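Q: My labmate handed me this sequence with no annotations at all. I'd like to see what the chain might look like in three dimensions before we decide whether it's worth expressing. Could you predict it?
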Amino acid sequence: MAPSHGMPVDLFGRSSPAREADVVELRVAAQQGMVYTVRAVAAHLAGRADFDIDAIADLRLAVDEACNCLIQVATSSATMRCVFTIGPDTMDVVVGTEAVPRASVDTSGFGWQLLRALTEQPRLETDVRGEFGGLAIRFTTRTDRSRP
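A: Here is what I predict for the chain of 148 residues:
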């Protein structure tokens, strides 16, 4: 269903009153086989939010890297939690999981450099509040990658 006269649409294509942001949360096993699902959800949300095709491709790759970085340090029974906050021109993404004790993500490696190139302000956080169970990667991306 197409939006009518500039009226925003919700994730199901229904006209909806303007909101500051929509939040979608996804929880999957912290396993390589689940990364495809997280990428697909991210791409779908970006498409519904009118991201351009290049921004969607960048988002898919960034989500893939964030998930893979965390899967490498996740405990064997960990759940990966992904939160997508969709605003008017941006999407804030948080991917987190329970990590093995004293684990960390290599922020000097290729994967992290790719995150830095594809997103705004990527950061690794130790989840001190227990919201994500250990480590979390946060970043922001824009609907149109050509804009600053």
